[in-house]
Specification:
By secondary structure, the chain is mainly α. The chain has a domain at 14-54. Helices cover 75% and strands 0% of the residues. It is built from three helices and no strands. Helix 2 (15-32) runs antiparallel to helix 3.
Amino acid sequence: MNAILEFIVPRLRERSTYVGLVGILTALGVAVDPQYLEIAIALGSGIAGLIGVLWKDKTAA
């Protein structure tokens, strides 16, 4: 259990984790509700863009 947490917690501090989760959730929404395809894609893209804008980039060491 501790090894799992040691892997997951650092991933939760990375922007790419959230962008990936948004992509997965968007894909699931498209598969579940095809009538809302455009809304799901727009919402997922918007959330990913918002994460990209608000998340602070790491500076080079």
